[in-house]
């Protein structure tokens, strides 16, 4: 059985870069890695609706914190079977965002903390009701919100990818960072490890920790 490792953090924190670096390092060491990123925009109709709502589609859907969170959750529910198959076939399954993203962004939008009603609701929906696979470890890539924002801005200029309405909201990103800190502190759903994302992470050390 492989280990389920989740990378969490703000938009522009460096999650995709870390996932690529870790994947390469684990493969160099002879391990096998499956990789997925949520939302699965090109693979799931719920994620497709998320993307449309994030860019102003579907009337007031994007304004509904719970409505959006249900769509993100359904994307993961539909991925659960494939995740279990990947866990059976690989040493490591590496996820770029997972359930904690729903908890952190929703709570931040509602001005709640890691111990608030929204985080409890996400637990009831995704963990208890949908029973998606539990991570072995959640990595919080910690960077100050202004650093994450400037990286995301830079990426927007150098790649085709455009930031959505939430990604451009700096006070939301600040609050979201605080909820993530709270989730990591209480060890929400699994053990967490906080990584300093201001520097280039030590891929070799992390890969060794992940593969045990
Ligand atoms: N440790 C780092 N130091 C400096 N820049 C970084 C670092 N990690 C990622 N970046 C850059 O920041 C931008 C956002 O990184 P990315 O991995 O796409 O973030 P995320 O997936 O968290 O949104 C990219 O242009 C990437 O090259
Ligand atoms: C996966 C997930 C993301 N989100 C938020 C975080 C981001 O602001 C937004 C989009 O996710 P993101 O990973 O930034 O996708 P991309 O960079 O490819 O657009 O959705 C949730 O609120 N809940 C979730 O379950």
Automatic annotation (TrEMBL):
Alphabetical list of CDD domains matching this protein: TMPK
- All copies of the Thymidylate kinase-like domain together span 7-173
- What GO molecular function annotations does the UniProt record carry, in alphabetical order? ATP binding; dTMP kinase activity
Can you tell me which family this protein belongs to?
Answer: Belongs to the thymidylate kinase family.
Q: What is this protein called?
A: Thymidylate kinase
| Keywords from the named record | ATP-binding, Kinase, Nucleotide biosynthesis, Nucleotide-binding, Transferase
Output the SUPFAM superfamilies linked to this UniProt entry: P-loop containing nucleoside triphosphate hydrolases
Domain of life of the organism encoding this protein? Bacteria
**Which enzyme type, at the first EC level?**
transferase
Coiled coil segments of this chain: none
Which chemical reaction does it catalyze? Answer: dTMP + ATP = dTDP + ADP
Q: What does this protein do?
A: Phosphorylation of dTMP to form dTDP in both de novo and salvage pathways of dTTP synthesis.
Which residue positions does the secretion signal occupy? Answer: none
**Is Transferase set as a keyword in this record?**
yes
Instruction: Look up the record and give one Gene Ontology term from the biological process aspect.
Output: dTDP biosynthetic process
Q: What is its EC number?
A: 2.7.4.9
Q: What GO CC annotations are associated with the protein? A: cytosol
A Pfam family of this chain: Thymidylate_kin
